[in-house]
Design brief:
about 290 residues, alpha/beta, Alpha-Beta Plaits, six-stranded mixed beta sheet, three-stranded antiparallel beta sheet
Length: about 290
């Protein structure tokens, strides 16, 4: 379905950028299919739930999926906060995409988003229910309702940087552009912890205990001397000090422990680790 509807008269900052709207009720698979739709229509940026995504990078914004109430999520998604809108407008000015795909639950929502961001009125409106089968839409709704899964059209690493404390799983899917061969594009399934448990916190000492247990999975580690978690606005810094067995390749073991700590702590806790520092303080002769 293609439509342009009634023209708006916002103060436009980006008259040279084309906008395509992708609409459909919440949970019908818009974000899941956004990458494919963007490639099919030559869009080099996506605006979805408060985020600006250029290529596979989240370059600006805060996701509505982080909000704790539906009302707050809607306000975030339509850029009600002036500072939020200014941040994303600044990123649009910096990256200057030629065509942007804007996602919304309805035409009126897309209209509000483009108005807040100073973008021109959409040249085309696509409805996800016309692009995907009834079975696909029904399955997407089932995942949202029963499992609380939300998709963000960006790779897991990009999402984890803004979703520390949430559970993030990668999702890979084949997409085909007009001229290129099929490619695998990664986007992320996000399950906010509050959707299961209410407000949810993991104490630092629990994270440190988990880190110690992971270290002891390596036979070369004789003792975990110290663990420390330093929380920041972007995630957490994990510091570990070890005593290793005599005769082992110290740097190789430290690298393996570092990789395993980042992988398993993030998986078990949903906390994004900005850095993992592993230091060998002693060599044990026992």
């Amino acid at each position: 379905m293609a439509s342009t509807g009634k023209e708006m008269t916002p103060i436009q900052m980006f008259d040279d950028i084309e906008v395509i709207g992708l609409i459909g009720p919440s949970g019908t698979g818009k974000s899941h299919h956004a990458m494919g739709v963007a490639q099919e229509h030559d869009c080099d940026a996506i605006v979805d739930d408060g985020l600006l995504i250029v290529g596979s990078r989240i370059v600006a914004g805060r996701s509505a999926k982080r909000e704790e109430t539906k009302l707050a999520a809607v306000r975030r998604a339509v850029f009600t906060s002036p500072s939020h809108a200014v941040e994303v407008r600044g990123a649009i000015a910096e990256f200057r995409p030629k065509r942007i795909l804007v996602l919304g639950t309805s035409l009126s929502m897309v209209e509000r988003i483009v108005e807040r961001l100073g973008l021109p009125y959409p040249c085309e409106i696509l409805d996800i229910r016309d692009l995907k089968s009834e079975e696909e839409v029904t399955e997407a709704l089932r995942h949202r309702k029963q499992e609380g899964k939300h998709v963000i059209p960006a790779p897991t690493f990009e999402v984890k940087k803004t979703f520390s404390g949430y559970l993030v799983d990668p999702l890979q899917i084949f997409v085909r552009s007009r001229e290129e061969k099929p490619a695998i594009v990664e986007r992320s399934v996000v399950r906010p912890t509050y959707s299961y448990f209410g407000n949810f916190y993991i104490a630092d000492n629990v994270v440190m205990h988990i880190a110690s247990e992971i270290c002891y999975e390596f036979p070369e580690v004789r003792k975990v001397l110290r663990t420390l978690v330093i929380n920041t606005s972007g995630g957490a810094n994990l510091q570990v000090e070890l005593a290793l067995a005599y005769g082992v390749d110290v740097f190789s073991v430290m690298k393996q422990v570092q990789t395993k700590l980042k992988e398993k702590v993030e998986y078990l806790t949903g906390i994004y680790l900005v850095s993992v520092d592993v230091v060998t303080r002693k060599i044990s002769l026992e």
